[in-house]
Amino acid sequence: MEVTIPTENNGTSWKGGNEKPLGASYGKMMMWFFILSDALTFSGFLGAYGLMRFKFHDSWPIADEVFTHFPFLHGFHAPMYYVALMTFILIFSSVTMVLAVDAGHQMNKKKVTFYMLLTILGGAIFLGSQAWEWKNFINGTYGAVKLNDGKIIQFVDATGEQISLESFVKPLHSERTQLTRNKGVWFMKEAELPPFTLNEVVESFKANPAISIRTELISPETKAKTIIPHSEAMGFLNEAKSVVMGANLRENEYGKTLFANFFFFITGFHGFHVLSGVIINIIIFFNVIIGTYERRGHYEMVEKVGLYWHFVDLVWVFVFTFFYLV
Amino acid sequence: MTHAQEHTSHTKLIWKVFAILSVITIAEVALGITKPDALYLTKILGTSPLNIIFLVLTIVKAYYITWFFMHMADEKKSLRRAVVWTSVFLIIFLATLLLIEGSYINDVLGPLTKWNY
Predict the structure, then answer these.
(1) Tag placement on chain B: N or C end, fewer CB within 10 Å?
(2) What local confidence, expressed as pLDDT, does residue A75 receive?
(3) Is B82 in the A-facing interface, judged by CB distances under 8 Å?
(4) What pLDDT score was predicted for residue A326?
(5) How far apart are CA A64 and CA A326, in angstroms?
(6) Which of B29, B81, B88, B97 to mutate to test the interface with A (most CBs of A within 10 A)?
(7) What is the pLDDT of residues A76-123, one digit of tens each?
(8) For position A128, what pLDDT does the model report?
(9) CB within 8 Å: A53 and B102
(10) DSSP bridge partners of A212
């Protein structure tokens, strides 16, 4: 009978012992398995998104009509350009990260420092871009009307292009003001009122025969939202409940509320990963500067945070595909 | 890859991979903006050919990031398979079940949704 007894324990058991069956150090191997589990978490979220998308595939918002903003180009219809730019920023910060790892293999402290700095900058720019994207989505572009059963009605001009409420609604000088704490009972308040009342929207719509409405329903032939002629539109507007401006977790002017929910949750979860990645990168950056890895004799720590950083990029590639392209 | 080689610089390979990833992203964005009718409005394998193209290009990108940026190509076969096969199998399993269920719910629910008022 043979029994394996660790006869020699020269203080390395904590790091996985002397045997390395997978040929990677304990830290690197565990980083890989963390990435594996995190990848499955993201798959769960994206899978749930896919389930809901297939469930409502005839009435899901069209991404090209939702994300159309670009900095400094107001009113210019620029679908996808901005998110493509964000993708490039993240891929490029992945490149500088792998360059830092490469420089680490050559024990080149100066180069590692420089590339880590670029990586951190790339991550910060990406986070800022994502905040801007959220801001546009939350504030909305056109405004819409929600029906009693939760469906969203948008307004289009004679050519079928979507138009904003501002462009045709005439204020009727209603007396309704937002209830704030200093106006009523001290504990009562309400959310910010939409810029127009429902009555103003409906009256302006009636007075303007050139415009029409469209529903969320996507025609399978043209893959465009169904436009209802002006004469039949009142049937819908008689069911109207409220004016919706922008998107949040309860309502979404672009269509299904679920779209906003998943967008906030998945891009938010990814953004949180980017944020933690930036923070970890900053810590490692300072460790590089003070020479921790120079003294340790290798830059494996840069490699390990690099793995995490590339994973964040990898997830974005999928988020980009499923939220913006497909 | 031997240990001695690790100390030589791979900068050339890195820039090459970056070029490939950029070209793929530009192609995706160009297709996403133009949406050619022949690819967008036709149907193949239950979806449009455009969606299939996006999916394939995404997987190609994921391959390049994992293999060359995360250096999966340099890891031992055992580690590579433990990570890649596990994730690929579980993700395909999950996605298949969820998407089949999603389109079943659509078949049942779709006709019940009211679109006339």
Answers:
(1) N
(2) 67
(3) yes
(4) 87
(5) 10
(6) B29
(7) 777 888 999 999 999 999 999 999 999 999 999 999 999 999 999 999
(8) 95
(9) yes
(10) A156
